């Protein structure tokens, strides 16, 4: 595992990520902190009051130190307030994708054993049953219209709250990422991990204070993954910058909001969809300072089209759940140019190296496994010490599972992945998990899921399935059965039933053969 930073054992409220974000709030607490696409306004004082009330409420439950607060709710400002309040009270936030269905939720709840679960009112019946069976003490509801038992209960609590003291390496959040074996792993991120990354990005992306004209962020991403939850929210809060809050991404609304905003963050699909809008012109984005893309590879055509349509050069950056942000193309001219197809330089404090067959490679352009070390690198996988140990080198570098190279100027390019992973519209889909579900369908002998290029989502899954002797399989029925069980983004967009799967001399399925055969089908 990675070496621990010094001073991590001291307990102080200054180690709490919430303190650091709170210190960024502007002096004028009446100013607008968040404006929603439905016209609601929240001042900085509203955030201070509401996070205090929810934090007091959470503390009143007398959960043990290190308790997990698992949350599966639709995007709302109140959901962000719940995240901030969890930090404020010193508990561990565990966000869950709203697309997860019961089998997926059962796994997370059984694995993480949260003390508190917060879900949408419409899911209370089945989620509370699951949670209480696993020993969860409290299940609250929170809806995107500000109704639900969480806020009703919090309304009875004080607007004053003393931020919980913690150690720097105490956990702030657990982010589940699927695994190549099909079992999701909870990446444990400490307050220090998240604080270091938020501070580095504030500097590197040159966030402007109110005095410098004041950045305004369009927040259009989901808030259960690193990109929307940490990179976007922390970026705005630590800088005291207003957020324009979109409950869902819609290219028309996002484009309209650009007249009042300066920063936009998106996965490549969001840029592809914005490029589909005739209204995307230089004039429409004249107020914008910075467009940031990440979470998935961006096609060079998208990068170039954006430049010619808007006059702006997208800043591509690279990160992951286990490490938050690792590299970024330059923001300020003095740091260099933004080069399309690359993910830029390692961020200040991040060590990034390329490991080849015989050890660390030194020559520019040599391709190998990307390994990283730094104050942003996570504390390990929840309840999986052996898996954690496997993912670190002897000298404390984390093996990202991404493959790339570094050029003579120091720009990092990702060329592929050693992990069998499909990234679709910025969501990760692990073939092993989906194949497990397909193989469990009656009449299926075996299957393979491969990622093929897609103009909208970048990559989408295609399932190739072999039937047991005598069994009749219908692709539509396979898809329908998967839809009944799995999160929607994991569903293969197409399914083919074949006689057998191509294998190499070792008997291993040749996914590259399937990928090229089914591309464009
Ligand atoms: C939705 N669908 C998807 C999908 N999203 N299928 C594959 N991949 C996806 N990402 C399904 C829907 O269920 C629907 O299926 C069909 O595709 C069309 O849906 P849609 O209406 O077009 O989808 P939409 O709701 O508009 O969502 C698309 C999207 C969303 C791109 C806005 O996927 C999204 O917000 N992605 C961002 C993910 C993200 O934040 N990633 C960050 C991870 S952090 P059907 O069958 O019902 O029609 C990370 C680290 C880092 O990676 O570096 O940042
Ligand atoms: P997640 O597990 O959801 O955090 O996804 C992290 C993975 O997304 C990384 O390991 C990369 O494979 C991929 N990724 C993130 N940013 C980029 C990027 N800018 N370009 C290519 N891949 C990226």
Write a brief structural summary.
The protein has 521 residues and is of the alpha/beta class. Helices cover 28% and strands 25% of the residues.
Description:
This protein has helices at residues 17-23, 44-60, 77-88, 102-112, 124-133, 149-154, 191-204, 226-238, 251-257, 268-275, 300-310, 385-390, 431-439, 475-483, 511-518, and strands spanning 32-36, 41-43, 68-72, 92-95, 116-119, 138-141, 171-177, 185-190, 216-219, 242-245, 263-266, 290-293, 315-320, 324-328, 345-346, 351-356, 359-360, 368-373, 398-406, 412-417, 422-424, 427-429, 444-454, 458-467, 494-498. By secondary structure, the chain is an alpha/beta fold. It has three domains: 13-335, Rossmann fold, CATH 3.40.50.12780; 345-417, Luciferase, domain 3 (Roll); 422-518, GMP Synthetase, Chain A, domain 3 (2-Layer Sandwich). The chain has a nine-stranded mixed beta sheet with strand order 2-1-10-9-11-12-13-14-15. Strands 17-16-18-19-20 form a five-stranded antiparallel beta sheet, with no helix packed on it. The chain has a four-stranded parallel beta sheet with strand order 4-3-5-6, with helices on both faces. Strand 19 (398-406) and strand 20 (412-417) form a beta hairpin. Helix 2 (44-60) crosses helix 3 (77-88) and helix 7 packs across helix 8 (226-238). The structure holds malonyl-coenzyme A and adenosine monophosphate. Malonyl-coenzyme A is lined by residues 221-222, 225-228, 249, 267, 269, 294-295, 319-320, 424-427, 457, 460, 488-489. The site of malonyl-coenzyme A (MLC) has 21 residues, from helix 8 and strand 13.
